[in-house]
Automatic annotation (TrEMBL):
Keywords: Amino-acid biosynthesis, Aromatic amino acid biosynthesis, Isomerase, Tryptophan biosynthesis. It is an enzyme of class 5 (isomerase). This is N-(5'-phosphoribosyl)anthranilate isomerase. The gene is trpF. One of its GO terms (molecular function) is phosphoribosylanthranilate isomerase activity. Its EC number is 5.3.1.24. CDD domains: PRAI. Belongs to the TrpF family. One of its GO terms (biological process) is L-tryptophan biosynthetic process. It catalyses: N-(5-phospho-beta-D-ribosyl)anthranilate = 1-(2-carboxyphenylamino)-1-deoxy-D-ribulose 5-phosphate. Transmembrane segments: none annotated. The keyword Transferase does not apply.
Length: 212
């Protein structure tokens, strides 16, 4: 029996640093919330902050920890507060697979990247997150990439990231038909501080795109 076609694009909001932003995202029906554990990010939190923020997340909302080539010991300390891991560095499949949580691999869309090959390489991943490429920046660039570069029928679910906002998300959903979308800067007033109107508008535009 074939799987039923997807009728709703899942939404992940990333880069939370404040409890009130988490509460609003949950109220808006966001599927996953991201916490940046990479200390060089302007949106980073430490383990103590992660523990407090994750405690506000109710059942059936996925807590995702974002890491960039960080020590296994640190990741293991974060595991009690997370439901899924997101790897944004040069982690090998074995690096990602060693923990006891589901994980996704972020890929930056370099000119030479072969997504079909990467989907096979990271075949244990729950999804591939596709982000814009900027040298020296592992994510959160606020830039889009050419969505037509994503091959149809990729072997892994696609989470589309990179420069998304309420202004372009409907076009992105219609063109790419991703499993999910991931946004951080596009719903912010400033780094790590979400904007309530932008959050609500983003969710509304995804829903509108899904209905069409």
């Amino acid at each position: 029996m074939s799987a039923a076609p997807q009728t709703r694009t899942r939404i992940k909001f990333c880069g939370f640093t404040r409890g009130e932003d988490i509460d609003l995202a949950v109220a808006l029906g966001v599927d996953a919330l991201g916490f940046v554990m990479w200390p060089k990010s302007a949106r980073s939190v430490n383990i103590e902050q992660l523990a407090a923020l994750s405690a506000r997340v109710p059942a059936f909302v996925t807590r995702v920890g974002l890491f960039v080539d960080q020590p296994a010991e640190l990741i293991e300390q974060c595991l009690p507060y997370l439901d899924m891991l997101q790897f944004h560095g040069n982690e090998t499949p074995d690096d990602c697979q060693r923990f006891l949580l589901p994980w996704m691999k972020a890929l930056r869309m370099r000119d030479e990247i072969d997504l079909t090959h990467e989907a096979e390489r990271y075949h244990h991943a729950q999804a591939l997150l596709l982000d814009a490429y900027r040298p020296g920046t592992p994510g959160g660039t606020g830039e889009t990439f050419d969505w037509s570069r994503i091959p149809a029928n990729l072997a892994k679910p696609v989470i589309l990231a990179g420069g998304l906002s309420a202004d372009n998300i409907a076009d992105a959903v219609r063109q790419v038909a991703p499993y999910a979308v991931d946004v951080s800067g596009g719903i912010e007033a400033s780094h790590g501080c979400k904007d309530a109107d932008k959050m609500a508008s983003f969710v509304r535009h995804v829903a509108l795109a899904d209905t069409h």
